[in-house]
Amino acid sequence: MTGPVHAQTEEPSDYRQDHYRAPVPETLKGATVVGPEETYELWQSGGIAFVDVLPRPPKPQNLPKGTIWRDKPRHSIPGSIWLPNVGYGAIAEVTDTYFRTGLEKATDGDKTHPVLFFCLADCWMSWNAAKRALEYGYENVYWMPEGTDSWTFFDYPTEEITPEQPEPQ
User: What ranges make up the beta strands (E) of the chain?
Assistant: First the structure.
């Protein structure tokens, strides 16, 4: 007797535009797909830029006066740069500029510098962001589809990170 059959998610030709928390494909054309153990080895060896693209909800505009707003802390792979909201299927010009600037900082402006994208498990944000980086001309793109969910499952270290500034408004 065999286990349940899961339909394989096909790699789309364009960016995912909605339902970002859903099964992701096993591939990303032009990128190297890695699991948590290989990601850990890459992290230990150094020389690779880690880019967390977990989205961050904006502060609500209509909060009553005196309401204290606290952003949810993000525990991520140590040394990562956090570029929230760059993994949507369509991004505004200001977000595109933010993403490009963040990647330039993370790679010292070298498009051959290895860069690894992640988010959470079953999150299309990292797939979209890695695809976008390939279109920007980055040559050594890695994608970890299982994200920090698998990283923490393996009990690898994390640290609290804050978004790269200035965030687009």
Answer: 32-33, 49-52, 74-76, 81-82, 115-118, 141-144, 159-161
